[in-house]
Amino acid sequence: MKLVTAILQPEKFQDIRQALEEFGIKGMTVSEAQGYGQQGGHVEVYRGKEYQVNLLPKVRLEILTDDSQALDMVDLIIATANTGSAGDGKIWVTTVDEAIRVRTGERGEAAL
């Protein structure tokens, strides 16, 4: 099993979610996050005064999947999230030793 974690632009999330649902993904965990990468933040002007914004809004997406779907899912996220600009995001894949569905006690891939 693999855990695919992606940090993405918030405005791309609905497109990514739709693409993943069409791919066959039935569940995901989504949380709001803040951070920065190579783009390093930006300057905003509020009431004539400039403010440095160092932490930008992001969406953290986590999906637990079987090994056979992980790389295809990553490719789909990349294709949907890519704008060609700094700040498009990061994706990483982690090996998961065990997953357990709390309601039924199912373990392993049966818990997905």
Task: Explain the overall architecture.
It comes from Rothia aerolata. The modification O-UMP-tyrosine is found at residue 51. One of its GO terms (molecular function) is enzyme regulator activity. With 112 residues, the protein is α+β, with helices and mostly antiparallel strands. Helices cover 23% and strands 37% of the residues. The protein has helices at residues 13-23, 67-81; strands at 2-8, 29-35, 42-46, 49-53, 56-65, 89-95. The strands form two sheets. It has a four-stranded antiparallel β-sheet with strand order 2-5-1-6, with helices on one face. α1 (13-23) packs antiparallel against α2. The protein is elongated. The chain starts with a strand and ends in a 17-residue tail after the last strand.
Number of strands: 6
* Helical content (DSSP H or I, runs of 4+): 10-25%
H-E string? EHEEEEHE
Low-pLDDT stretches = none
Share of β-strand residues: 35-45%
Organism: Rothia aerolata
Family: Belongs to the P(II) protein family.
GO molecular function, one term: ATP binding
Keywords: Phosphoprotein
Summed up:
The protein contains two helices and six strands. It has 112 residues and is of the alpha+beta class.
